[in-house]
Amino acid sequence: MPEINENQVLVKVKAVGVNPYEVHIREGTYPLLPELPYVPGGEGAGDSFSQGAALGVAYITAYRSIFFHGHGAPGQTIFIHGASGGVGIASVQLAHAKGLKVIGTAGTNEGLKLVRENGAEAVFNHREKDYVQQIKEKYPNGFDIILEMLANQNLNTDANLIAKAGRIVIIGSRDMCNFDARKIMSKEASITGVARLLTTTNEQYLEWGQELTDLWTQHKINPIVGTELPLEKLAEAHELIMNPAKTSAGKIVIKI
Hints:
- Strands 5-4-3-6-7-8 form a 6-stranded parallel beta sheet, sandwiched between helices. A 4-stranded mixed beta sheet has the order 2-1-10-9, with helices on both faces.
- The protein has one domain (15-255): Rossmann fold, CATH 3.40.50.720.
- It has helices at 20-27, 49-69, 86-97, 109-117, 131-138, 151-161, 182-187, 202-217, 234-241; strands at residues 15-17, 44-45, 77-81, 101-106, 122-125, 143-148, 162-170, 190-193, 225-230, 251-255.
- By secondary structure, it is an alpha/beta fold.
- The two termini are 18 Å apart.
- Helix 2 (49-69) packs across helix 3 and helix 2 packs across helix 8.
- Residues 2-254 form the Enoyl reductase (ER) domain.
């Protein structure tokens, strides 16, 4: 049994969440690589196991993206580009709970249904060729905030959809972006990124964690576990998280 000091807690981990950045670290493509040897994993739970494992990184990332970088406030519109994954659903729930108007996209019927059920007022299928035109027709003034899960494919689209002085927050990207910056300049919009919460302070973790706990106990947020796998199938979990069409909407969790 490990020894701990008065400022630590000892948790017998029963479930852990799986995140895309862990795959990028394993492949050596993440911009901030840790020193070796390295044990992957940034979230786990020892009580209310699967939901607890789904709460950590996804909801802190969502909170930081919406309210710290996106400056979200009640009544604003937020567009979540890829809303049916772990961070996406967390963002839908949090934004809805805080009084923002939520619009999202998903690529499957299951995902579309899940995003709508968790607080989005409108959901679009990003596999349809004309989905951007559908969005423009329904929301001609654009969005105050856009959360982007796949910037290498969608950043130019986001620049077309963002409102004047809007904020685009990049949560995920799998390659370099070919991007026309003039679209952002003409609207005086801004783009910022989130990288594995490396600049999140202990004080922020405590403050945001307490607020998330309060929202959870008030049943205003509810972690959605889409896929559960045993530890011996961790490689499969990494494959699934990089291929969302192959798995259920929601968070991927490893049971220990």
